[in-house]
Amino acid sequence: MIKLIKSRKQWLLQRSEISESLGLVPTMGNLHLGHLSLAQKALDENKHILVTIFVNPKQFGPNEDFERYPRTLEQDLELLSGLKKNEDQVIYVFAPASIEEIYPIGFSTTISVKGVSEKLCGLSRPGHFDGVTTVVYQLFALARAQKAYFGQKDYQQYKVIEKMVHDLCLDIELLCCPIIRDQDGLALSSRNQYLSADEKKAALILSQTLQSIQKKIEQGEFQKIDTVELKNENSSTVQWDYLEILDGENLNEISSETKQVVALGAINIGKTRLIDNLLFPLTGASIVR
Ligand code: PAF
Predict the structure, then answer these.
(1) What is the pLDDT of residue 284?
(2) Which of 78, 207, 217, 248 sits at 20 to 30 Å (Cα–Cα) from 13?
(3) Whose CA is closest to 144, among 258, 233, 15?
(4) Residue 54 · residue 193 · CB < 8 Å
(5) SS3 per-residue string spanning 206-275
């Protein structure tokens, strides 16, 4: 069963009646197979799930796509109803009817995680992660779920939320779920639909460059990778925002302690910004110069 909830009050009343485990899947809607994989995992691991659908104004900059971000509630509900679940499982969908349901008039709190939020996307999208952590904290408080599911595609976002949960001792388990890609390798994103067919082809440079980095590292050629050169090679159709190879645990520079590496990239194609990453183990031999 799917239960659509439009107000904070309605949700809090509903929440007081749920005694079994609850998994939270925070989204901004316009669901695709990536979101559905999170919701399916949540259904597999919890009695009930809460999918939140809220296009959070606080995480968009003044010149970003808040206004045009696709809002497709009917379609989202339809997609969620196709998930595999037992008869007694409920998918609660909290889609606030107004921004004030999340940020009541006079709302004046910001949750800000320093450090990990100040690099990569944090540099080109000032305030973005404060917007994310402020809304996610709020959703955690409203949901009181045992587990929350996020996509690896927004890996820095995941790491920022993980730090918030750690620093504030929040009683919730976080799960980072694999990136879902289309058949060409493009990571699924609601923003892909802004792209023309040609732009979609051009966007493949992002996943392909990350793959070539992973391959080089796995072949023990970490020292031969020049990310500046890689960006220059591939800059005719897309504008690179960043391309970095970092420690997958803390997003710091790779060191002798590094066990997992993450290669992350962000590109702009026209007005569309896309991000992607690959996370893989780093063997000691790979970083020997
Ligand atoms: O990843 C997203 O869709 C959003 O950043 C989130 C976590 C739902 C917060 O608005």
Answers:
(1) 64
(2) 78
(3) 15
(4) no
(5) HHHHHHHHHHHHHCCCHHHCCHHHHHHHCCCCCEEEEEEEEECCCCCCCCCCCCEEEEEEEEEECCEEEE
Catalytic residue among 32, 35, 48, 166: 35
Does residue 235 carry a pLDDT above 90? no
Residue 20 banded pLDDT, cuts 50, 70, 90: very high
Residue 128 known to be catalytic: no
Ligand 1: residue whose CA is nearest its atom 1? 27
Instruction: Give the per-residue pLDDT at 285.
Output: 60
Q: 250-262: b or e for each residue (b if 16 or more CB lie within 10 Å)?
A: ebeebeeebeebb
Q: Which residue do the tokens 């899947």 mark? A: 25
pLDDT surpasses 80 at 236: no
Mean pLDDT over 229-238 rounds to 85
Q: Which atom of ligand 1 is nearest to the CA of 26?
A: 8
In the structure, what pLDDT confidence band is assigned to residue 140 with cuts at 50, 70 and 90?
Answer: very high
Distance CA 128, CA 138 (A): 16
Residue whose CA lies nearest to ligand 1 atom number 8: 27
- Give the residue-averaged pLDDT of 260-272: 96
| Contact status, residue 130 vs residue 41, Cβ threshold 8 Å | no
Q: Which atom of ligand 1 is nearest to the CA of 56?
A: 10
H/E stretch holding 45 reads helix 33-45
CA of 271 to the centre of ligand 1 (A): 20
Strand partners, 2: 91
The DSSP code sequence of 120-173 is THHHHSTTHHHHHHHHHHHHHHHH--SEEEEEGGGHHHHHHHHHHHHHTT---E
Closest C-alpha among 268, 238, 253, 283 to residue 64 = 268
